[in-house]
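User: Okay, second chain of the day. Same drill as before: sequence in, C-alpha cells out.
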Amino acid sequence: MELKQFIQDIIQQGKVTVDANVTPFSGDDIQAAIQQLREHYEHQKQELTATVPAFDAAAAIWAAGFLYRAVQLVILRHLGEETVNKLLTPYEGVISPEAVLSVDLSFRYLSNLMSLAKGLAPEDILVKRLREAAIQWPFSSVGMKVEGELKIETIMNNACVRRSYIDRIITARDIKRCNNPQVREYIQEALGDYGHVLWPGFKPE
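Assistant: Same drill. C-alpha cells below.
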C-alpha cells in the first residue's frame, strides 16, 4: 500500500489498508502523496473564510506519514518501543497557520485512530505518542479527550484558522475548549442570538 493510495482512501472512503512492512516510502510515492494532499487542500479552501493560509507541503507530508505509521503500529503490535519512536517522530518545523491546516488534512482522523487504539493500555508508547500529537495539534483534536496544555496562539491569531476552530468546537460541543477566555468570547460571539439552537445549554466551566 502506497502513501498516496492511503491518503486517497481515507479521504474518499474513510477506510484504509496498510502494508505489513515498515519500509521507507519511495521518493516517487512521497511526491505523489504531496500532490494528492495539495489537491485536497485546494478543494477544502472552498469551505474556509477569510484569507486562507498557503499549503505547507512539509507539514502535510509529515502528518500523512505519521498517520500511516500509527495505523500500522496499531496493527503490528509485536513492534517494540524503539520502532514506535523511530516511526512516529515529532514535527520539527514551525507550527504556523499554514502548518496547522496542512497537518489537519490527515490529523482530522486522529480521533478515529485513537478509537482503534482504545484497547491498548493507557501507558502504551503508541497511545502516548498519539496523545502528544493531539496536544501539539489542538486544531485537529477538537472533540477528543485531551489532557495537557493546548497552545492555541497560532490558531487564535489567524482569522481563517480561528473561525474554523471555533466552528469545530461548536459542532463538537467541546465544552472544555471553552475554558480559555479568548475562545469563550469568540464562541459566544459566533453563537449570538441562536445559542439556544446551535448549542443548547451552553455553559462554559
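The CA atoms of residues 142 and 169 lie 6 Å apart.

User: Thanks, on to the next one.
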